[in-house]
Amino acid sequence: MITIVGSINLDIVATGPALPRPGETVGGARLARHPGGKGANQALAARRLGADVQLVGAVGADDMADEALNLLQAGGVDLAQVANVNGETTGVALIAVDATSGENLIVVCPGANNVLRPDDVAHLPITHMMGVLEVPVPTLLAAAQKATGFVSLNLAPALPVPDALLAEADLICVNETEAEAYGDQLSVSGAYVAVSLGAQGAVLYKAGEEIARAVPPKVQVVDTVGAGDTFTAALTVALIEGMAPQDALAFAVTAGALACTRPGAQPSLPQRRDVDALALGGK
Fold first, then answer.
1. Over the stretch 219-267, which tens digit does the pLDDT of each residue have?
2. According to the annotation, is 154 in a ligand binding site?
3. Catalytic residue among 98, 120, 229, 276
4. Is 66 a catalytic residue?
5. Can you give the pTM of this predicted structure?
6. What are the chain's domains?
7. Given pLDDT bands bounded at 50, 70 and 90, which one contains residue 144?
8. Interatomic CA distance for residues 25 and 22, integer angstroms
9. 197 is in an annotated binding site
C-alpha cells in the first residue's frame, strides 16, 4: 500500500491558440473542468499503474468536492482519509494551455489543502509514502517519519524544506527549475534524485552522480498537464517493485509521455498495460 499525502483540486482549463503574456488577453479558448491536484493525480496514476493506494487529503464542503474526487473513487483509490472541511473551498487550479505546443501556465488556489495537519496522519499505519508540496510541510514530515517503507517526495512547487524532511526520502523528484532552486541541498540528501527534462526525458542521480538517463518515446503532444505527476508516480511504483534504476526511469518517462497524448490531468493518466507495451514490450 502506498499512502499519498497531497493536494486535491478541481482543474479549470482554458485551451487556446497561445499562452498570454503579462497584460495580454487571448481569446478563442475552449473551457473544460477536470479533477486534479498533484496529490490526487499521483494517487490515481499509481493506482492505474498497479499499486494499492490510499490518499490523505482535504476538500471543501462545497459542490466542487464530488467533482474533484470522482475519478479517484471510480479508479479504486482509497478515500477514507480524505476530509470534507467546513468553511474552506475545494482547491482549484486555473490552467491555460497552448493548443499547439501543449505547454501550460497554472495558478493554484489551495483552499482546503492548506488545512491538512500532522494529526491527520498520526493515527495511520504507513508503509510506502508519497508526498507533494501542495500541502503543509509539517504534515509531510509527520507522514514520512511514520513510513516504514519507501518514501518518495515530489518537491513541487519549489519551496523551502527542512533537511529533516529530505533525510526521510528514498526518492526526490523535481523538474529542471526546481532542481536549480534547491541546488546542493538535493545531492546531500542521500536519496535518489530524479530530474525531469520535459521532452528530453529524465536523469537519475545518487549522491550527486548520474546513474541513469532515459529519453521518452515520440508521441503526439496534446496537453502536458499531469505528465510530471505521472512520471513521479511511475518511478516510485517501479522502484518499489524492485526495478533496476535504468529500467525504472525508462518506465517513468514512457508513462509521462503517454500522459501527454490526452487532455486533462487525471483523464490522461495511462494504464499499466499501455506503459508496459511501449516501455518494456509487454514483458
1. 888 877 788 999 999 999 999 999 999 999 999 999 999 988 887 778 8
2. no
3. 229
4. no
5. 0.89
6. 2-19+30-279 (3.40.1190.20)
7. very high
8. 9
9. yes
